[in-house]
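Title: Prediction job returns without error message
Component: structure pipeline
Severity: low
Priority: P3
Assignee: unassigned

Description:
Job completed but the reporter wants confirmation the result is attached to the right record. Sequence as submitted:
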Amino acid sequence: MKTLIFKFMKFWDKLPKPFFCLAPMADVTDVAFRSMFAKYGKPDVMWTEFVSADGLSSKGREVLKYDLLYSEKERPIVVQLFSSNPVKMREASKLCADLGFDGIDINMGCPDRSIEKQGAGAAMMKDIKKAGEIIEAVKDGIKDSKKKKAKSMSISVKTRIGYNKNQISEWIPFLLSQDIDALTVHARTRKEMSLVPARWEHVKEVVEIRNKMGVKTKIIGNGDVKSLEDGIRLAKETGCDGIMVGRAVFGNPWFFGRERPCLKGARGKASRSQEISIKEKLKVLVEHTKLYDKLLGKVKNFAVMKKHYKAYVNGFDGAKELRVKLMDTSNSKEVETIIKEFLKTL
């Protein structure tokens, strides 16, 4: 019996506290981007971009499957899906289980209007009944898979504290009653977008609700985390199990790789962040670009890759001029040539 319990243990139970997660970000956290983090500074958990379950059930599946590419080095890897259609969510969940993902996360917080028009993302906060049906559909889809690994696959939800106002007292207990393994809470409402500072006192409130309910769901806080030190502090103040980081990692695949500040019970030793040299940053930019071209160049516009250049190329003499040149490129060969010429001037 003990052997069976260990075999099907969810990966969440093996993580340190607090653990750190790479946030799902549209047109950002693709396989090329995540590969850089897997190599230079791996977080405890990786998330894919959000993927349309409806799309995965349509003729466009073959193109969308590129959003489901991942490598073994990225594990544990969680795929994020969105839909308001239980049938399609079930089909997509089975596909993801068959592909061997470690978990499926349901997007119930994205404020994008095109997603909300489909009744998905943040719109789920306005339809609790539908949200419950979507969660059940994911569970059923995982059960439909014949893969042995599916038995240990996790189910999680990423959401906000409310739609137009704070809905924690109704929305969070509902989600925690759905037998999910993890819940990520972005500490703002949908209406607030990212226009106001994240209010982490609400993450603490969610943790208190979880504890009072006596469920084992891991609580992950999200919003305005700027460093590992910042994340450690917020975890200590709120009691959350994990920290999800988004915008702060742009152009910085070393973000999670630094030694972690000390917190009683947390791994890592206190240390100052090491500065990454301009030369190293630019070499990784080229590596990232080449990998993007190789893995995604046939299906994604090169402009998606170029949005990373502002983050990689800043804070040094000649950065602005270099960015201008890079934004005129159309493939990795052109980028490599420009970077090589610039490095000769250092």
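Comment from assignee: result matches the submitted record. The longest helix spans residues 278-296.
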